[in-house]
Specification:
3 helices; two-stranded antiparallel sheet; 2 strands; about 80 residues
């Protein structure tokens, strides 16, 4: 889990360096929201898996929420663009 924690910190450092409108900042926001949704352990594990497979984390919406259909409901690994 140490590597996942280091990756989380790395992406946050990149976001700070690149600024609030950067892709790095948007990805750091995804990671933080994922952390709130599923907790540290799961996010760090997913970050390690993403690093090993060349993928990245993405928030997935169900589109079913009556109050907010854009609310994330899941975290998935996707290919990097």
């Amino acid at each position: 889990m140490g590597k996942g924690k280091d990756l989380f910190g790395h992406y946050n450092d990149l976001a700070k360096a690149k600024g609030p409108e950067s892709e790095e900042s948007k990805y750091a926001g995804v990671l933080f929201q994922a952390l709130l949704m599923v907790g540290e352990r799961k996010v760090f594990e997913l970050l390690e898996e993403a690093e090993e497979t060349g993928k990245m984390l993405k928030l997935q919406t169900s589109g079913n929420g009556a109050d907010n259909p854009d609310r994330p409901s899941n975290i998935v690994l996707v290919d990097k663009d």
